[in-house]
Each structure stands twice: as C-alpha cells, then as structure tokens.
Amino acid sequence: MDLQKDYKLYSQSTSAVIGLKDTIEFNVVFYGQKDYIFSFCTDKNLYPVNFRLIDPDTSELLYDNSGDRYLESLSIGFDVTRRLNIQVNVLGGISGKGDLKDYTGCLGILFQCKNYGN
User: Fold this and answer.
1) How confident is the model over 41-63, as pLDDT tens digits?
2) Which of 10, 42, 61, 63 has its CA 20 to 30 A from that of 30?
3) Which domain holds residue 72?
4) Is residue 2 part of a domain?
5) HEC string of 49-107?
6) Average pLDDT, integer, range 72-98
7) CATH of the domain at 77
8) Please, is 109 exposed, middle or buried when counting C-beta atoms within 10 Å of its C-beta (0-12, 13-18, 19+)?
C-alpha cells in the first residue's frame, strides 16, 4: 500500500484486529471536491478482504467489492461532503492453510485523497 503520486494520506486511515467471524464497521466522513483511493490489506492467511460501502442514512448498499473479484483498492470521488459506513470482513480462502476459525490478524485501511483538478 504505497501513496499514489499527487495524493496525500487522509487522517481517517486506520487498522484493527480481525478474524474470520468478524465484521468491522467504520463510519468515515469524506469531504466534497476530492478524489479518494481506499486500499485494504490484511494478514496473508486472511485474504481476500470483502468491503462494502453503505449509505448511513438510507442503509443502501453503494458498493460491494465481491462483484469485482475482491479488488483491494478503489478510486472514488465525492462532489459533496458525505459520511459512509464501510463494512469489512475477511474470507480467509486463498492461503490453503487449513482451519483458520480462531485465527486473527491485522486489517489495514489506507485512505488517500487529493483535491479535484490536481
């Protein structure tokens, strides 16, 4: 997870401990007139990471990366300031490492941003 050229680290970047049974939800404010890149990483045994963007006012599902083969980064722009709930869980299916039901690891979320037009 490297910073992209012209993007700055957004202070809402975070990390948490996660296991296969966990769903973690983050409530994040994104400011208008900015482009963002969301990047997710976890322990190699817990991939893939599934994340969903949800409108906190309507509970509408805005995006689910399972429809994009669990991509790990997403670029998105906001014209106006808005809050999003980001639900994250890990599936632990690609390591082939047997029983992971009690296994935990780190989940990292890097938010990067830049002003429109930069």
Assistant:
1) 999 889 999 999 999 999 999 99
2) 42
3) 8-115
4) no
5) EEEEEECCCCCCEEEEHHHHCCCCEEEEEECCCEEEEEEEEECCCCCCCCCCCCCEEEE
6) 89
7) 2.60.120.380
8) buried
